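agent> step 3/5: call structure_predict on target 'Glycosyl transferase family protein' (Mesorhizobium amorphae CCNWGS0123).
agent> reason: downstream docking stage needs a structural representation; sequence fetched in step 2, passing through unchanged.
tool.input:
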Amino acid sequence: MRVTVLNLDIVSAQFPKPDPRCPKQMLQFSPAPVRSILILQTKYLGDIVLASTLAKNLQLEYPGVRIVFLCEARFASFLTAHGIASEVVTFSRARLRGSPLQRGREFYSMVRGLRRHRFDMTIDLSDSKTSRVVVRLVNARTRVGYHPTDRPLRWYERNPANIRVTRFGYGEKHYLYRYLSPLEALGIDLRVRTPSIDPLPLETARVQDLLNRHGLRQNAFVAVHAGASFRGRRWQPERFATVIDEISRETGLDFVLVGGPDERAPAEQIVAGTASAVVNLVGVLSLETLLALLKEARLFLGNESGPMHMAAAAGTPVVGLFGQTRPTRWAPVGAPSICLQPSMPCECVARDLCRWPDPSKSCCVWRLEVEPVIEAVREILAQTEVAVQPPPVVRATR
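tool.output (status=ok):
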């Protein structure tokens, strides 16, 4: 992957293989086969998409292996339908953050679901206090975890891992390589380097009917995601509306708004603020249908989010809008992309809302102006018209 940073100098990112002088860990020589693996990924949609690459490599290394994900219930059908996981054990994040009674009941239910399985290996991608407790309770023969952990362990805490993994593997800094680093520690060849998730045939047919119903053409519309988990990560709806009108006028492309049920408000503001006809599908698509829709799009334009990573995994070009989150860590991988970020350090525009230094609760993306986004859309459309597609680009705006 080559990245253009600020001054547009090209930097080549190599993909080194594990040092052949380092012996593989004893797991590879164990006579006991690996039949079942638990992957603890209790985070968000973008993390799930990146972690799918780890699952594919494990499936190639251990044919017939049963991979079980521990994740939120809303991701269950997406993981199993696309073959990323054989099974899923779910939990409710809301209940785990509820009253002590709610937390206790949810944790007990989650652990009971896990204990019904007999895992040969656990891989703790979440790297949290809760996930380490779960790993100890499951007590698989091989327990893979990060060392050092993301947050220093307290005096009474213990890392249950017996195979310890560096925070970022293969000499890389992108979060994809955080989730691939267990392979390096296990001595498993890295065969699949980027997320690639194909839509289900049934969902592709469903999306074709949807496009016909709304008069949309395949590969002739832009999927726009204006939502995010926190208000500060949402670029202003009126600026999305301006970009939509300009690109629609220049190219004749149609526009489709996508997102979850809790992201209807910014979508409605965009619809009200555009002169162009916009199809609003926010809150009406399952994740499986959303993936199939993104596959048919000419371009994805949106905030740094799970749908951005889904679009890239489907092979759709991306223009991603970033705030304090570093694109070098979280840029979409798997498709041509341009990531825009305001110059840093940020000149704060929302001191009453920002919770610095937490990038998920900062409003730096609000400093992105409209014109650089329009230029990025023009550029990625021009680039991806040719057969040989260019590498991802990271760009800071002034």
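agent> step 4/5: record observation. Residues 15-186 form a domain with the Rossmann fold fold (CATH 3.40.50.2000).
agent> proceeding.
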